[in-house]
């Protein structure tokens, strides 16, 4: 619980100044001097404890001259990127590299989803992309904030994420299948109070760290059901986030033939044919 005292599990010295640290339940990954040291922490898993530390990029052939710029650690993968545009997925289960990808320019930040199978990366041109490791595809994020300092994936809706700077955050949705192929759509923008840093996103509830160390929670404008908000405006945002079941309830409330048609067209465009045709009874 939050009242428990911290327990020291071990300590370790690293080769140079530490830039970034990421922890999972069994491993620690530390970025320092353009390299990553990956090593196990105290664990009941004997296989984990017996594994020798790994140093990246030395462990990967052809990447010795690369400088690692960022990392992320999930329960399944260590993900990192370099100044030459490499993105690497290292499997913690197999203890080996499973995916390597090369972007055309250097990468300065990456932000994975909960599993590490999808991530958002920011390149040296301040462009944002969604990267899908299973297919090694990248999708450019439209209207990506030039001064983005972070990205959070929604734990409740894994296709929704936000990109934020010091004044606002932009909500996006990743569309896995549509008549246009994979794509990213912008949903809307939420203004942030100064000195607030987003920490976690769950179903549109954004937890922020404020001045004095206080934690606060706000509902994104793209998700908020504010008094006086136009129901059709809310419906449009829900449809853009591909929350078709919620959109169905709103259409029932609005009871407008054109809105039913718009929902049906959106579902069919996303290849959700059955859902789209089911709504024809209301047209």
Automatic annotation (TrEMBL):
Q: Where is the WDR19 WD40 repeat domain?
A: 9-223
Membrane spanning segments where? none
Q: Name one GO biological process term.
A: intraciliary retrograde transport
Q: Which GO terms describe its cellular component?
A: cilium; intraciliary transport particle A
Query: Which InterPro entries does UniProt cross-reference here?
Result: Quino_amine_DH_bsu, WDR19/dyf-2, WDR19_WD40_rpt
Q: Which Pfam families match?
A: Beta-prop_WDR19_2nd
Top-level taxon in the UniProt lineage: Eukaryota
The protein's name is WD repeat-containing protein 19
